[in-house]
Please model this.
Amino acid sequence: MASIIMEPIISLNIIPIPAKRCGIFCIFANGIERNDMMMKRISKMMMTMLLMVVCCTQVGAQGFSREPMPEGSYSPVTNINHNGYPRVLKDNSVMFRVQAPQAQLVQIDLCGTKYDMTKGEDGIWTVTTKPQVPGFHYYFLVVDGVSTADPASQTFFGCSRWSSAIEIHEQGMNDFEVQDVPHGEVRTIYYYSKVDEAWRPLLVYTPAGYNESKETYPVVYIQHGGGEDHRGWMEQGRTAQIMDNLIAAGKAVPMIVVSSNSNVHARNGGFGGGYSWQGMQAFRSEMIDNIIPFVEKTYRVKKDRKSRAMCGLSMGGGQSFYIGLRDPEVFANVGVFSTGMFGGIQGASNFDLEKEVPGMLTDTKTFNQQFDVFFVSCGEQDPRIEYTRNIVKKMREGGVEVKFNSYPGDHEWQVWRKSLHEFAQYLFR
Model:
């Protein structure tokens, strides 16, 4: 906590407290010191104020001592207090500190691995994890068996709940950071879904210069993974930073990116997920019949198939595969990131390319002519990687023109950021 210089408080035997913790009392008390006449008017309020002092002093006493931070450590951008914990150490391990003097067991659940914390005499629990790969990682604080978000972290919607997260910096990934370049905008806008029979949100990135320009732009429709929603790509995925930097460097053409919530529950039954053509129908209708017409009515966009792309990660990769590849009259560009439908997840096996995308292997020439870009990616430590490599090999042996890349990392956001970063550079050339 930053140092705070306190002015004297009235001459009561009360320990001064930081103004940031009890601003109302400190301002009020200083006023008392300057004007004794006010004492007559606030006698009935003094006990309340004294109780506030006690309360705030107890809160202040719970803060960590001002001991030096571990040498070479840094506070991740996902922290609320950049002078606090968790801290990323030199080897990318993470040190956590949690004050819970009454707890019996405190753990950190980081990427599915639980670390038991050690309690000190001061009631502060500590633990240092094993080194982590660079990127964005969800984590939870588990106190006596209850899993919750860590108050020390910003929160993000992931794992089907509000989650804490820690960002491990990776050298050379400046395109994922805010740079001194022209910046676009991310807007929240609502459209009416005839599938869900409700108003639903979109997050829309428009490139720098959109507001001043009269030009029309191509569009990428980008899909999140299971347990996430429309916020994922713009917040965890850093879509705006990636696009701003690529466009400014001339590595990508100016384009609009639309992030929708694909967790659609059709009123007549069906859910917007599932790795099958049938399972995709609710969201397919949402995308083609609701989202695209709304975007093309609301924004200055190009309305031909060659100016539309669909991509997504994990569940969104499966949606992009089925909807994008089976609707070539709508999309001419498709990106599939870390999907589990080829294998590597429970229930996925013996994926039949020709059955799932008729004509891909039996009329490959036509298939290739329909798509300007077909891109597949996966993390190198993701359980899906070998299945993905095998299916890409089968595609290529059949003559399918598919681009493929893998990146260090598991089923995680750094892989997906890199996937978007590469995919965007191929589009609309």
Remarks:
- The first strand starts at residue 87 and ends at 88.
- The two ends are 51 Å apart (CA to CA).
- DSSP finds ten helices and 18 strands in the chain.
- The first helix runs from residue 23 to 34.
